[in-house]
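Lecture 7 notes: from sequence to structure.

We start with a single chain of 62 residues. Read the sequence below before looking at the structure.
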Amino acid sequence: MPLEAARGTLVLLNGTLPHRSGPNTSDKPRHAYTLHAIDGTTNYPSDNWLQRTSLPMRGFSN
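Now the structure, written as C-alpha cells:
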C-alpha cells in the first residue's frame, strides 16, 4: 500500500513491517533519519548491520 507523506511528516513503522522506498527520480536529495529502539538484553551477531564497532550499541538502564 503506497504511503505518500508531505515534507516534514513523521512516519513511524513497526520494525516487523516490510517496507521499502523506490528510487529518487528527482534532482533533489531525499533526507531521512532513522531511530532504532532495541531491548538492551538483545544479543546481535557481530556482522549485523546495526552493530558498528566504531559506535557500539548500549542498552537502557532499568
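The CA atoms of residues 24 and 30 lie 7 Å apart. Keep this in mind for problem set 3.
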